[in-house]
Amino acid sequence: FDAFCTQVFQEEMAQAGTLDLHYTLLRPEAFGISPGEPKLGVCTLEDMIQSGAAVQELADRLAAFDRSLLTEDQALVYDALSETLRASLMGRGLELYEQPLAPTIGVQAQLPILLSEYVFRSKQDVHDYLALLSQFPDYFSALTAFEQKKAEAGLCMNAESLEKVISQCQNFPSDAKNHFLTASFEERLAGCSFLTSNQKISYEIQQQKLLADAVFPAYEQLASDLGDLRGYCPEEPLGLAHVPNGTSYFQWLLTYQIGSDRTISEIRDLLEEQIATDYETILEAVRNGVDLLHPVSEHPLFDTDTDPETILHRLALKCTLDFPDVPAISWKIKTVPDSLAFTLSPAFFLTPPLDIPEENIIYINPVYEPDEKELVTTLAHEGYPGHLYQNTFESSLPPIRSLFYIGGYTEGWGLYSELYAYDFLGYSTETASALRALSSLNYAICSVLDLEVHTSGWTEEDCSNYLQSFGITDAEQAHSLYLTILEEPANYLKYYLGYLEICKLKESAFALSPDLSLMEFHRWFLEEGPTPFSLLQKDLPDLCHENSLK
What we know:
With 550 residues, the chain is mainly α. It is built from 22 helices and three strands.
């Protein structure tokens, strides 16, 4: 079984695009993988369909093993892989519902950041990077073909979102010498001691030519090609519930990308229950005189002029109370380039390769101008005890586990960490709880809209009416939120449903074992690694049994 897991990892990595391989492994050869010719990847409908057939073949190979003969650790991998493959296969026939282009999380917005962080550890890395730049025209051409097929199937994105993507593509090209890809390239070359000065100059010239001849024209062509799809845009922007099989696709997102097996009805009940709880917490605090608009910290740990580096160090110290110790972690904090600031998230963590876990990077997007509280909670989400800290546990798992992306597990933990950080801000217990409930309520409201737009067919008017019931009357804000939900189905639920699933696991754990410590629960959850929540729930009794034996 171990040999099978190694072989599957090798096969997947051998077929992966160069970016995926580069960001997963520092030394592929040490894992028995020989990198092939550089390639950006594939994104054709035919490739997606073929991928589904490969998943079925892998599921059949896995099923040939007798699970009862496996060790406990092997059985955990078996179950996680089996469940992930099962969930993946639910998406067969729904490939055209995929959305590779979107204003915030689309390929056109994410790809430049991945290229700007492409580390050069050898001359071959530089050559591979330049080769990837040369492939932009063909890669974007394939994206256009896929979008054309979506449009012909009645699945074209709404007109406003399409215009946002077109505008991004039109604005991306600029003077190659002043472009952020040029600046990041020169910065990385400067640290390459294995290159001579003349070689660096030669590579800089090559990149400028590739940007001018391949990358920028590819963006311009993509903008032009997408413009040809304007006639396919729906008359009214509506969610997945309004297209055939759209709700099935949304359910697949919940199961495969989030890792939750809950029904739509169960999720709806869970959200309503949490909204009622948060609302009562907030009202009780207000009745007791808590000023939620201008909360006062009794023991401020983070000064207003504190920089992100210092905040992360202080968060790491605070986490030692309820989270297990880990080896010292190094990191860098970077700022999102101005040219991408309006298209990327407020912050994000770049996962390092498996065999060099110390190369951690957190990006902060200055355009969002977070206040002191938001900066601390954001860095808790991305850093301690969030993704940066979480990744130290995952780096010790078998390599095959890196192939599992359970969005609810990963982003749910990020949000869990973000909300947990309200206890670190020096507020009274009641104030911290009320502020956490207020933030939770905001996520819950967005998640309800996410669910109802794509399963019940709520329109923008329905969403506005729902928001007004909570006193949210800003029409522009409501419109922007509605468009985001259309562009990124199940994205709010990836965070918030994942968070609620973790809370339910914790609730079940303490019900089974009242003397369980919070640190023990956190250790168990993190050491389990990315796993569908149904399997985590099934494994809970083992944690509680081990605790009872202590």
